Amino acid sequence: MPVTQEELEAVIRAAIQVTYVNVEDNSGGCGEKYAVLIVSKDFEGKTTLARHRMVNEVLKTQIAQIHAFTQKTLTPQQWEDSQKASNATS
Amino acid sequence: MFRHISRLPLAALTRGSPRATSSVLRRLLSSEARAHIQNAIDASPLVLFMKGTPDLPQCGFSRAVIQVLDLHGVPPEKMRTYNVLEDPELRNGIKEFSEWPTVPQLYVKSEFIGGCDIVLGMHQSGELEDLLEKHSIIPKADEEAAARATSS
């Protein structure tokens, strides 16, 4: 049973208070390779390692079933800053 | 080398105690296996558990970490890599040891730093360079400049 984009997003939304979440399927349909961006105030005051550990724990079952998983975890403030930065350069 | 020290006791463990249920077995890394991984991590200032070897990485994520370490000029004598593809017990054991679901995994001075996403992020922010300098794995940028200045 392949892990779907919708499943990943639903599990994340159920466990973490997200401002924004984007699940990208890079597998070309086989459900093996995902890149996830999560913006949440739950990440405030946590190191990147702690944030990733939190997401790994939430998606434990799913990550075990897929081949490649990459994540970005930002606080709302960092997200805003990164949006501004990319707007400024484009 | 890791295969040497780990294979026997780890294999013995997985076949192990008939009383334990399989789910318990899977969750509990034996203290022996744990000690072997700990020794491996302590044996070198920088330790990378990866898929493949530095010359021939067998996964894009492992390759990316090797490239970043290479970019920072981490000298071979300060670094040790273990190919988890050659050792199924290590491949599973390290995930449990680090409480981290994926490989590669980077350790600096026996401390877990993270996987590929974290290492790349730290590389981009400059934190990785600071960390490597702090632990004298690479020379400090200003010392290097000073050394160049005095030698010329």
From TrEMBL, chain A:
Signal peptide: none annotated. GO terms for cellular component: cytosol; nucleus. One of its GO terms (molecular function) is 2 iron, 2 sulfur cluster binding. One of its GO terms (biological process) is intracellular iron ion homeostasis. This is Bola-like protein. PANTHER family: BOLA-LIKE PROTEIN 2, BOLA-LIKE PROTEIN-RELATED. It comes from Russula ochroleuca. InterPro entries: BOL2, BolA, BolA-like_sf. Belongs to the BolA/IbaG family.
From TrEMBL, chain B:
Residues 47-113 form the Glutaredoxin domain. One of its GO terms (biological process) is [2Fe-2S] cluster assembly. PROSITE patterns: GLUTAREDOXIN_2. One of its GO terms (molecular function) is 2 iron, 2 sulfur cluster binding. GO terms for cellular component: mitochondrial matrix. Keywords: 2Fe-2S, Iron, Iron-sulfur, Metal-binding, Redox-active center. InterPro entries: Glutaredoxin, GRX_PICOT-like, Monothiol_GRX-rel, Thioredoxin-like_sf. CDD domains: GRX_PICOT_like (cd03028). It holds the Pfam family Glutaredoxin. This is Monothiol glutaredoxin-5, mitochondrial. It comes from Russula ochroleuca. The lineage of its organism: Eukaryota, Fungi, Dikarya, Basidiomycota, Agaricomycotina.
